[in-house]
């Protein structure tokens, strides 16, 4: 009797274990071939090392989360999440992604270098730059929360090509309308929900005047501002951007709350104070506008953002034997 019971328990345990394993695999493999604990055997301290460096750097620079999550977005939308955005130009005839105009203000490359240096010391040529960027962005945005805002399955490998010419058509511009935004996201396997949810990242960070000043000055050729922009806010922005083409002045995208990752972006948007035409465009479609209203609720936004970030982090990833593990995130291996 006793033996039978034990076997029964053992059987049930195994069955449960099997179900849990399958669920784990599904969770991680839902979008791609990435997996949790990818470096468990080859570099067990990898995630801890990234987290430690990011914690320190984020304490000194609370704007780091904005820098790194935008860098990951630019990485994933051009050639997939393959760290192509990190490569320096080798041949001036073929400038790398970093050199393209929308890169303007991409920064945080030095932080990625620091992490790579530490990881090369701990486990040489094991952890990809693409995985480092995905972890670093997550940890930097999560830093003020004391918990991880989204999961980052791992196993991305690094690409060997980076071309500024490929930014166009892949990274949407700030004056893009709704249909062209949606098209850009659809091309990456993301849908309208992802578009509205990921745009919520504009709740942190800043923009240079040049990205939106056309909305402030002579928008329709009659010396006016974009009529879809709140009038008082347009006056406020003109004061901040007296020189419309300024490459140096920056403006908070979520006024008064640009260091705080929250749902304020959607409140501001509904007050017609979205900074870019691409933000305002999210109100021009019925379904999208409805989502904006829903996402004002924290309980809706945070889990949705986590899911969309996991989708973004899995775009066209290189896995298995594809690509390589760079020794230096700025240059391909010899
Ligand atoms: C939907 C299409 C998008 C457009 C048109 C767009 C456009 C822009 C532009 C023009 C800037 C200002 C750059 C500058 O002048 O310094 C910016 C900043 C930023 N974007 Fe986006 N973006 C989009 C989507 C995203 C996504 C998907 C994310 C991340 C998930 C993101 C995160 C950020 C962040 C955090 C900043 C602030 C960066 C900083 O403070 O340095 N954006 N975006
Ligand atoms: C996973 O990897 C296999 C073999 O490397 C490949 O055939 C398959 O397309 C990949 N699946 C996804 C979703 O990337
Ligand atoms: C850059 O590429 C062009 C075109 O392939 C080639 O003619 C040139 O020699 C290259 N320059 C360097 C420095 O490699
Ligand atoms: C949206 O922008 C695209 C590209 O600039 C343009 O071809 C299209 O006509 C615009 N659509 C609308 C509805 O304005
Ligand atoms: C505004 O735009 C119109 C039409 O493009 C142009 O004729 C006019 O000179 C512009 N005004 C200013 C102040 O730039
Ligand atoms: C970080 C970086 O490489 N920024 C470059 C962005 O592109 C401009 C030219 O459009 C360069 O001057 C910057 O150096």
From TrEMBL:
One of its GO terms (molecular function) is metal ion binding. InterPro entries: Haem_peroxidase, Haem_peroxidase_sf, Peroxidase_pln, Peroxidases_AS, Peroxidases_heam-ligand_BS, Secretory_peroxidase. Binds 1 heme b (iron(II)-protoporphyrin IX) group per subunit. Its main location: secreted. Removal of H(2)O(2), oxidation of toxic reductants, biosynthesis and degradation of lignin, suberization, auxin catabolism, response to environmental stresses such as wounding, pathogen attack and oxidative stress. These functions might be dependent on each isozyme/isoform in each plant tissue. It is an enzyme of class 1 (oxidoreductase). Heme b binds at residue 202. This is Peroxidase.
């Amino acid at each position: 009797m006793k033996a039978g019971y034990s076997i029964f328990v053992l059987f049930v345990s195994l069955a449960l274990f099997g179900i849990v394993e399958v669920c784990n695999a599904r969770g991680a493999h839902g979008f791609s071939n990435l997996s949790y604990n990818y470096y468990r055997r080859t570099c067990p301290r990898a995630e801890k090392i990234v987290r430690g460096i990011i914690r320190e750097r984020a304490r000194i620079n609370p704007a780091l989360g904005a820098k790194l999550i935008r860098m990951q977005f630019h990485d994933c939308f051009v050639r997939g999440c393959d760290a192509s955005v990190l490569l320096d130009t080798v041949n001036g005839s073929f400038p790398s992604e970093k050199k393209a105009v929308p890169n303007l203000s991409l920064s945080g490359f030095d932080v990625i270098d620091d992490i790579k240096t530490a990881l090369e010391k701990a486990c040489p040529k094991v952890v990809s730059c693409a995985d480092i960027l995905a972890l670093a962005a997550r940890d930097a945005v999560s830093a003020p929360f004391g918990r991880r805002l989204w999961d980052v399955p791992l196993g991305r490998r690094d690409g060997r090509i980076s071309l500024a010419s490929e930014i166009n058509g892949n990274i949407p511009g700030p004056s893009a309308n709704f249909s062209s935004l949606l098209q850009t996201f659809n091309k990456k396997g993301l849908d309208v929900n992802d578009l509205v949810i990921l745009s919520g990242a504009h709740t942190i960070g800043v923009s240079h005047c040049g990205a939106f000043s056309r909305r402030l000055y002579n928008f329709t050729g009659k010396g006016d501002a974009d009529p879809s922009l709140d009038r008082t806010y347009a006056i406020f922005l003109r004061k901040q951007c007296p020189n419309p083409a300024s490459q140096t002045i920056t403006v908070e995208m979520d006024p008064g709350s640009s260091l705080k990752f929250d749902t304020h972006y959607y409140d501001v948007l509904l007050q017609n104070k979205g900074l870019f035409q691409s933000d305002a465009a999210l109100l021009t479609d019925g379904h999208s506008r409805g989502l904006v209203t829903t996402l004002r609720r924290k309980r809706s936004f945070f889990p949705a953002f986590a899911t969309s970030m996991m989708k973004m982090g899995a775009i066209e990833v290189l896995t298995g034997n594809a690509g390589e593990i760079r020794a230096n995130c700025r240059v391909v291996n010899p």
